[in-house]
Amino acid sequence: MQALAAASKTVDCLKLVHSFHCYFLLVGDFDMPIIYQVHRVRDGNSFATRRVDAVQKGNIVFTLLASFQFIAYLDCL
């Protein structure tokens, strides 16, 4: 959930996640911090796409691809 939260912080508050896929690539280490790197794949008027890599010891251990869609009827908080 931290990866999705990191991606959400990089899009307009009127765009909500409507699809995401995640993959565990390597075994992580509970004793090591995780660095989340957010990549802006696309920013459009209605949709935004983000890729998030979770990195430990220089290796990507987890990756997430999320798509966000503009929702016109919500107020920005």
Automatic annotation (TrEMBL):
It comes from the Eukaryota. This is Uncharacterized protein. It comes from Pistacia atlantica.
